[in-house]
Design a protein that fits this description.
By secondary structure, the protein is an all-alpha fold. About 80% of the residues lie in helices and about 0% in strands. The chain contains three helices and no strands. Helix 1 packs antiparallel against helix 3. It is elongated and about 35 Å long.
Length: about 70
């Protein structure tokens, strides 16, 4: 079960990181950007990249059952 949730977290982290890097126009990602822009202003894409990397790391640790 840890493998499933860890892999899911890694996939979500990659989605967030890739969309932030490409400044994607996907509707669901634009909703996340709109919500984050309230707090992060112009640094919204940088914050999403950092969050994506952190989620990927946590997902890997969970999948390997180190967390």
């Amino acid at each position: 079960m840890h493998l499933f949730w860890g892999a899911l977290m890694v996939a979500i982290g990659f989605f967030l990181f890739i969309c932030a890097t490409l400044k994607s126009e996907l509707r669901i990602y634009q909703l996340l950007v709109a919500r984050s822009r309230i707090m992060w202003k112009d640094k919204v894409y940088v914050s999403h990249k950092v969050a994506g990397i952190l989620i990927i790391t946590m997902g890997l640790l969970m999948a390997l059952e180190l967390l």
